[in-house]
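Minutes, structural biology subgroup

Action item carried over from last meeting: produce the structure token record for Phenylalanine--tRNA ligase alpha subunit (Virgibacillus byunsanensis). EB confirmed the sequence was re-checked against the source entry. Recorded below for completeness.
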Amino acid sequence: IQSETLEKIKHTNDMKELQQIRVAILGKKGSLTSVLRGMGKLSKEERPVVGEIANAVRETITAAIDDKNKKLEQVALEAQLEKEAIDVTLPGRPVQIGGPHLLTKIVEEIEDLFIGMGFEVREGPEVETDYYNFEALNLPKDHPARDMQDSFYITNELLLRTHTSPVQARTMRSLDGNQPVKMICPGKVYRRDTDDATHSHQFTQIEGLLVDKNVRMSDLKGILDNFAKKMFGNDREIRLRPSFFPFTEPSVEMDISCKVCGGKGCSVCKKTGWIEILGAGMVHPKVLEMAGYNPKEYTGFAFGMGPERIAMLKYGVDDIRQFYTNDIRFLKQYHNA
Ligand code: FA5
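Output recorded by EB:
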């Protein structure tokens, strides 16, 4: 047994095989184990002689297995170290540096501009009640102007807000009807619009609201003019067109001349030379009243703009879908803008 086993141990290079050898000889049913078990059948004289030999064989084999095991472990460790060696001379992988999304930057820029004019920044829920999205803004359930904004309804009374104007009503309601308001509210809005170069079913708006005693249309015009000049520079033209919103009276829309074509007409401005960027007007007396303000004492103006369109104008982006398709090549262009 001894010479045969030592030979096997010598020739194996595998830890599993070594373990098998150990089991075959020294295991419960191993050949040496059965010799030792069979000792009882031997005569008194034979027992110590065979016992001594068997023990010596066991010790020799155990030592040989342990020794081989250590050697195999050493070989395995060396192989692993070699495999995992780090080549410090290899060049490192370039780190991709991220940056804020162009839209985030524009919204922050607009916020800073209005904060500079004394406005505070507020927020409101994206899942809105029918009441705040429409009714509190003078759009009762059967009002035809509701058709102007096809909406994503969740239940009969809950919908994804179609504009940031409900935050006007929420802000006024949160006060006691006797405090001036000067706030802007940026946020996401949702409409069942068909996506094209200038329309997206989800986009951003920034609402503005100023309520105080003696607020006039000329105040609105002054603020909008200041905003447009700071945002686009003195060389860009703006125009106010009369418009209609149920929550403002009178209402206007502000257009700005198209930078891409210089006012001549292109696909961005649908060949008109102008792009509509915001709606505005004097807060309707009914809206003030529903929010707890006395319209004889308080007046106000409000506006709502689309920062995507503003970014498109400022940076000559020709498709609104670029903001939402996450093409890293597009986004990277504006990291240092
Ligand atoms: C409104 O949403 C009014 N709540 C704005 C308002 C506020 C008027 C306060 C008066 C007082 P309108 O639907 O026109 O208005 O949208 C306002 C702006 O959002 C538009 O000028 C445009 O810049 C942007 N906008 C509208 N629809 C889309 C769209 N589908 N994709 C991208 N931008 C859009």
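Discussion: The mean pLDDT is 91.
Next step: EB to file the record with the rest of the batch.
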